[in-house]
Inverse folding.
């Protein structure tokens, strides 16, 4: 029986994020939400201070640090396992010093050449997401998206290992929605098992993304994307994925309980 995926709950402390922007701007509100995510079943809370939404304005390191560090510190003080979602090596290092256990980098190290060294020196697990400069649809040009994403991740891994990162630290993520059109996201999901042979843990971040919105009536509220997200969590579990990164933890928790019962039923 495969282990169920870890649930990574999303805590965006940004004024302009994809789907929950602005909701958790105050430290108290953010911390309360982080604590709630754990109570709902998240085993890690992913704190991010820079929106990755296409067109979002970039954030300087000082502002990003000021947004995330008080939240990281307070969550750590309350015993919450925290990951830091950042492309900046300096922010990653400060967050690790404040007690973050893991670094989640949507650029997979391409956004800051100092990141590899921070990851090597601190020894924390590192989520290497597939990313292309620019990030928008203009970059979403593939002949075989699975083969190309796999190859580009392989190159990233090779560089990180030269920088001193241990293979066991790495978690791979195909980067759904980042330089990917809807059909690319579905191909990456449907063939996710092809990433398994790279020998690293996998993480999937499908939660509330635009390609799921396309399954719903036009103008449907964001929360309606939680049902398809939860189905993806269940299918990801069946594909041996190590973690799913989601906004709504209860629906994914429920979906994973179904997988658990299903697997137990099959094993009797
Ligand atoms: N997606 C977003 C932000 N961070 N990190 C990883 N590892 N994988 C993702 O797919 C990912 C991410 C964008 O979504 P959000 O703004 O709704 O958090």
């Amino acid at each position: 029986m495969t282990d169920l995926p870890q649930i990574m709950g999303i805590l965006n402390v940004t004024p302009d994020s994809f789907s929950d922007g602005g909701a958790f701007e105050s430290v108290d509100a953010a911390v309360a939400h982080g604590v709630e995510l754990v109570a709902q079943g998240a085993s890690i809370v992913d704190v991010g201070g820079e929106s990755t939404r296409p067109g979002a304005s970039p954030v300087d390191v000082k502002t990003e640090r000021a947004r995330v560090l008080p939240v990281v510190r307070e969550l750590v003080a309350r015993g919450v396992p925290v990951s830091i979602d950042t492309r900046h090596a300096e922010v990653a290092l400060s967050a690790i010093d404040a007690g973050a256990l893991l670094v989640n980098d949507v650029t997979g190290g391409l956004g800051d050449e100092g990141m590899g060294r921070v990851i090597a020196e601190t020894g924390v697990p590192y989520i290497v997401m597939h990313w292309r400069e620019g990030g928008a649809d203009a970059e979403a040009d593939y002949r075989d998206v699975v083969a190309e994403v796999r190859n580009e991740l392989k190159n990233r891994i090779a560089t990180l290992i030269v920088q001193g990162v241990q293979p066991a630290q790495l978690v791979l993520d195909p980067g759904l929605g980042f330089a990917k059109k809807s059909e690319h996201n579905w191909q990456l999901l449907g063939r996710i098992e092809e990433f398994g042979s790279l020998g690293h843990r996998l993480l999937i971040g499908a939660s509330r993304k635009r390609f799921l919105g396309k399954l719903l009536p036009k103008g449907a509220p964001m929360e309606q994307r939680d049902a398809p997200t939860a189905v993806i969590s269940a299918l990801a579990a069946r594909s041996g994925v190590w973690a799913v990164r989601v906004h709504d933890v209860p629906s994914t928790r429920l979906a994973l309980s179904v997988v658990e019962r299903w697997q137990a039923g099959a094993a009797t």
